[in-house]
Fold this protein.
Amino acid sequence: MGVGPAASVAAKPPGRTGGRRGSGSRAEAIAGYSFVSIPMLLFLILNIGAILYAVYISVWDWNIRSGPVKLVGLDNYTRLLNDEVFQTGIKNTLYYTAIWVPLTMAAGLFLAVIVNAKIRGRTFFRAAFYFPAIASSAAITTLWIFIVQPNGLFNQVRGAIGLNPLFEFFGFIAKQNWMGDQDTALQSVILLNTWTTSGTFMLFYLASLQTISREVYEAAAIDGANAWQTFWRVTFPLLRPGHYFVATVAVIGGLQLFDQALIGGGVNGDPNNALMTTVLFIYNASFKRFDFSLAAAAGVILFVVILTATLVQRRLFGQAPSW
Amino acid sequence: MTATTQPIRAETAATIAPVGDRGARLRRRLAYIAMITYAVLMFVPFAWSIITSFKTLPDSVRLSILPNPFTFQGWEFAWNNLNPSLPVLFLNSAIFAGAVTLTNLALGSLAGYAFARLKFPGRELLFVVVLATLMIPDQLRLVPIYVGFNNIGLTTGIAQYIGVILVLAISATSVFLLRQYFLSIPHELEEAARLDGAGFFTTFWRVMLPLATPALSAVAILQFQGTWNSFFWPLIIARDQGHWPLSLGLVQFRLAGGFSNNWPPLMATIVLATIPILILYIFFQRYFVEGVAAAAVKG
């Protein structure tokens, strides 16, 4: 960590303005490298190194104790793609992402537009709408399970305010076990995560909304546009960079659904694999089947899917922001 | 003074307002009611967990706002029956959150400052690498990191703490937020310090770091909250229950500890796991909001 300190001053051109340009002195470079050394080492080993190691493990027959046993090429990938549980995991993950992403983006945008308006108490509303996002996934999911269990708050309140006939129409009994029924478990998780994440997306959209200049709205007002038209014709298109950012974050997050699935359905994503996701499969393959090479192969595939999704989105939304 | 200005403003507004003003006002009022209802709804589940933690088990599945009878049984049960005990879980959470916050502040500000202000070959490339790590899913890293850490003994004994802290030690978000902030500080102060003969580290430590307090606070809050709540890496690396944080303890007890439907103690544990973050949120709400929003500005 020894950064040659005093030498730097001597190396600089004598106190003239414009010395900033072209002052990339040796001492400065050494200081720069030493400042970033430890963080970069961690980033490189724990990310880039980890990817390479995952690819390496995925082409071996890997023993939990002794490590590599036999080079098997793409066998693990073949095994993986024929694994029924993995297929269920992929299907559930894609279903979840397809529903949850647009739902949460819409909710977040809606809340952002509300707290961006000139209303009294907007700080309070902003704080309140973000509130569900502050708790841990463990706490909020356990709480959710309690609320949607057969005797839970949700079923009791809908009974008390007379909504049961409506639910019956859709085929749900008064004591529906939302998380325990394979037809509604994943939907319950979608609802839970929409509720908790909409506050975060609200803040993302809010930052984006505040970059739109007032003049644009004034121009729209002069042209006689009402609030609805202004939103769809002016605000929504101008939020394009915001949409891109939120969609990217959302898809990456959606494809990684794990905590809620494990907490709600255990290591097998019960009931009947209804909560099995790609990532839960990776966890299950590692720590239940102790089949690390299969799990590594699943991780590589998930990464490729996420990378593809990000690139496709970049195409759809045009020029990407800084990353 | 305010008392006199207020009615005048209202009056002028009323005279300028177009026809159909009454309808607009009604709509406004309805919108407010909807917003307040929704805002209250945000707090209901957490309030419900507090209430339930003071109920008996049969009472916990009843739709009553006041516990009847009011009891500490749930809290006592959680206190006496969790293994490891609540204080140990709480302490583990605090160790993880405290250590990870410190490493992110230290490493994040060093890297953030260097990327913002120091010139060295390959700087842009390295920064792209940092940002690219945001796209790498944790789950791809599950197997290699577990296997690697297992090989060097970071998944047993006291080293489990180091293992978890190491994985979370520096996040690209911390580097990014601090870099953006350092970019916004004028060059003059720094140049003055350098002309006075201060070295790069002294300039960073004495001049720039104190100026970055707002960004450091935002990073500290975000990291503390994120790590306190973290579930995934402790689950993978902290294999012995003595090293579990509260989040992991809560889940394991429900799934495997025979707590599955014993709601009052579960709710008591949830309340305990959430209160530190709740207090942070009440006092530092601005930093939560600004930290999350700042991460989005790059979009």
Observations:
- Chain A is about 65% helix and 5% strand.
- The CA atoms of residues 103 and 194 of chain A lie 7 Å apart.
- The first helix of chain A runs from residue 7 to 11.
- Chain A touches chain B through 108 residues (CB under 8 Å).
